[in-house]
Specification:
InterPro entries: AAA+_ATPase, ABC_transporter-like_ATP-bd, ABC_transporter-like_CS, Metal_Ion_Import_ABC, P-loop_NTPase. The N and C termini lie far apart (38 Å). Helix 3 packs across helix 4. The radius of gyration is 19 Å and the shape is globular. Helix content is 30%, strand content 29%. The protein folds into two domains: 217 residues, P-loop containing nucleotide triphosphate hydrolases (Rossmann fold, 3-Layer(aba) Sandwich); 39 residues, no CATH class. It is built from eight helices and eleven strands. It has a six-stranded mixed sheet, with helices on both faces. A three-stranded antiparallel sheet has the order 2-1-4. It is of the alpha/beta class. Bound molecules: adenosine-5'-triphosphate (ATP). Adenosine-5'-triphosphate binds next to helix 1.
Amino acid sequence: MLEFDGLGFSHDPGQDPGRWLFRDVSHKLAPGEVLTVLGPNGRGKTTLLRCVAGLTTPTEGRVRADGAVGFVPQSHHTTFAYTALDMVLMGRVRHLRALATPGRRDHELAYGALGRVGIGHLADRDYPTLSGGERQLVLIARAIAAQGPVLVLDEPASALDLRNQGRVLDLLRGLADEGLAIVLTTHHPDHAMEIADTAMLMFGGTDVRIGPADELLTDSAVGALYGVRAHTLVLNEDPGGAPRRVIVTRYDQELPS
Ligand SMILES: Nc1ncnc2c1ncn2[C@@H]1O[C@H](COP(=O)(O)OP(=O)(O)OP(=O)(O)O)[C@@H](O)[C@H]1O
């Protein structure tokens, strides 16, 4: 379970009026729930995620989680020559006694997590030599190996190719179905429609809308959020199966701001 209540953040709260990135944001995620956060660049998605993960202190409000919150940053660089396996083993740290080194079970879980994100073959590679997408997969594996009940991921698919985007979305949905509560940001409404139970649209300041993803993610809401024209397409890919709704945008048709 993850709950945030009255969450607000401003870099200059003393200003009148204060310039709030977001304010009065509340939601309670049940185990198994995926919440997807959408909003334009600079709207405060990363700041909100960092508040939820306990890495940034919110200006207002509080966060409560049943257990450790795993955080997967948008990108990560290190010059230290850790291997991919070492990076994933770091996710096990809170399970180790003081000064203990990872044991057989930790290694099994780390290899298992690398396998789950499809990069078991990269275990012994030096992390700084991996591509951006490969590094993103290592960080997701690290969060999986940590075995916490809550995962918070900042644009986890941003550096991934189309096939790996699908794999990671499937993986996250699968982890939620195993009982994890998951919060992620994305710039792709389709990713939200694919896996989210709940969507959060950050229109700015106090206008932050939270609700069931299939109700909130309409072409008019997505269009208004980004200032573009958006259209819904209904795909009947599987005869006898439920039609799938996707939102496409016309990049050449900005709405007047
Ligand atoms: N120290 C600071 N002082 C003032 N503004 C800051 C400071 N640090 C960050 N900001 C601003 O806060 C805003 C929110 O940043 P944040 O990274 O949360 O946005 P985001 O929605 O995740 O953006 P993106 O989609 O580009 O990743 C941005 O406009 C950023 O420039």
